[in-house]
UniProtKB/TrEMBL annotation:
The keyword Transmembrane applies. It holds the Pfam family ATPase_gene1. It comes from Colwellia maritima. Keywords: Membrane, Transmembrane, Transmembrane helix. InterPro entries: ATPase_gene1 (IPR011744), ATPase_put (IPR032820). It comes from the Bacteria. This is AtpZ/AtpI family protein. The keyword Membrane applies. The chain crosses the membrane at residues 42-70, 82-100. The lineage of its organism: Bacteria, Pseudomonadati, Pseudomonadota, Gammaproteobacteria, Alteromonadales.
Amino acid sequence: MANNIDKHKLETTSKTQSTLASTVGIKVTRKIKARDNSHQSVWFGLGMMGLIGWSVAIPTLIGASIGLYIDSHYPGERSWTLALLVAGLAIGCFNAWHWVEKEDMAIHDVNQEKNKEDHIDE
């Protein structure tokens, strides 16, 4: 009976240590990657947010401006301002999504290249 309890404690302890070791390994890997990407500072993130904001705002404002021009020169039942504002917003959101996707792919490509180099060095 005591032998079974000791065996159970040993299995539980080894599982806990294994889980702890894998968690620590993941955190260390994350910190090393963050240190390697130190060139991407807070300013890089703020610049990216500004870029994304402008990539949405400019098409929206252009759409609203064209809509205002059409509504003032060719009045009608429908509001071209609202329709083109929404169209500009949709184009801007697509543009921002495309830009973020492109940056994400570039980051993953750099990380994959570094991982390949690390495996070659070992």
